[in-house]
Specification:
Blueprint: H1 6-76, H2 78-87, H3 131-141
Length: 147
């Protein structure tokens, strides 16, 4: 029988001591790679959101541009120029007679595309009944009178 000395048992312990260090090193590498991947994914997601917001803003601005182009075309038209000359500058056509009536507004109502009349009818104050009162009337009087 041979007796093992300390040198014979040392390589086994060294091999066993290497595994936890190797596992910890691999765990650290995986952790660093996972964190960097998550960070880059978040940056990409944020960039996508910013791009979507900028595209929406571009569409809004494009619509506003079309509205302004339409308004500019309308302002250049002969009818609009004539309207502005009559209302703001008080000009008239050469063969036209202008009659000024005092007490009336200077803006013509015949040329306005939309005439809006706002009439606010007087509404009588309503007395509302509570829900139990409405049910009482429904069951015992056969009708609902909410006022």
């Amino acid at each position: 029988m041979m007796v093992k000395n300390a040198k014979d048992t040392a390589p086994g312990w060294r091999k066993m001591a290497r595994w936890p260090i190797f596992l910890l090193a691999n765990l650290a590498v995986v952790l660093v790679l996972g964190i960097s991947t998550a960070r880059e994914t978040f940056r990409g997601w944020t960039a996508d959101r910013e791009v979507a917001a900028l595209e929406a803003e571009a569409q809004t601005l494009e619509g506003r541009k079309m509205q302004l182009e339409s308004l500019a075309a309308e302002l250049v038209s002969n009818e609009r120029i004539e309207y502005e000359a009559r209302t703001r500058l008080g000009q008239k056509k050469p063969d036209e007679r202008v009659i000024v009536l005092e007490g009336f507004s200077a803006t013509p109502t015949w040329n306005d595309p939309v005439r809006s009349v706002s009439v606010t009818p007087e509404i009588a104050p309503q007395v509302t009944k509570s829900n139990p009162q409405l049910w009482w009337e429904y069951f015992f009087h056969g009708e609902i009178n909410q006022s």
